[in-house]
Amino acid sequence: MPLSIMRRFSFCAGHRLVGHEGKCQNLHGHNYVVEVYVTGQEQDAVGRILDFKKLKQSINGWLDKNWDHTFILWDKDENGLAAIRSSQPHRIYELDCNPTAENMAIHFLEVVCPEVLADSGAVAFKVRLWESEETCAEVSKDIVG
Ligand SMILES: Nc1nc2c(c(=O)[nH]1)N=C([C@H](O)[C@H](O)COP(=O)(O)OP(=O)(O)OP(=O)(O)O)CN2
Q1: Per the CATH hierarchy, to which homologous superfamily does domain 5-140 belong?
Q2: Where are the domains of the chain?
Q3: Is 24 a catalytic residue?
Q4: Which member of 2, 86, 122, 136 lies 3.0 to 4.6 Å from 40 by CB, making a disulfide possible if both were Cys?
C-alpha cells in the first residue's frame, strides 16, 4: 500500500529568466512555496515514515542557508550575477540552468532532497514548487524498492 507524507515550506527569493519574452527577464522576486512529498521503507514504532518536525528542520535548514532571501540566478547569467554582486551585502545561489519553477523543482528533488534526507530512512519522490498562488511546477520520480 503506497504511503507518503508531505510538508509545505515557504521562502522569498529573487530571480530572472534569461531569454524570457516578457517581464520575467527582469530581476524580480517571489514568495515561493515548496511542497516535499516523502516516502520510506517502513513506518517506525510510532507509526511515522519520518517525523514532520525532522522533515521541517532538514528542509528549512537548507532553505534558510541557500534560497531564502537570495537571488537564484543561472550561472551563465553573467550580467545578472554582476548586478547583484555589486550590491553589498548580497546572497546569491547559482543554478546550472535558468531558475524557472520547473528547473528549481527538479534541482530540489534531484540534488537538495537526497542531500538533506540522507540517513533519515526517507526519500523524497515528488516536489511541487509554487511561484505564485496560481502557478507551480511539479516533478516526481519512481522510487525503486
Ligand atoms: N513555465 C514557466 N513559465 C514562466 C515561469 C516559470 O518559472 N515557468 N516564470 C515566469 C516569471 O518568473 C514570472 O514572474 C511569473 O509569470 P506570470 O505571473 O505568469 O507573469 P505574467 O506575465 O502573467 O504577469 P502579470 O503581472 O499577470 O502580467 C514566467 N513564466
Answers
A1: 6-pyruvoyl tetrahydropterin synthase/QueD (3.30.479.10)
A2: 5-140
A3: yes
A4: 122
Site residues for ligand 1, CB cut-off 6 Å: 17, 22-24, 28, 100-102, 131-132, 135
Annotated binding-site residue? 30: yes
DSSP 80-145: HHHHHHTSSS--EEEESS---HHHHHHHIIIIIHHHHHTTTTEEEEEEEEESSSS-EEEEE-PPP-
Q: Are strands 122-130 and 136-140 parallel, antiparallel or unpaired?
A: antiparallel
The residue whose CA is least distant from atom 25 of ligand 1 is 23
pLDDT tens across 40-84, in order?
878 999 999 999 999 999 999 999 999 999 999 999 999 999 999
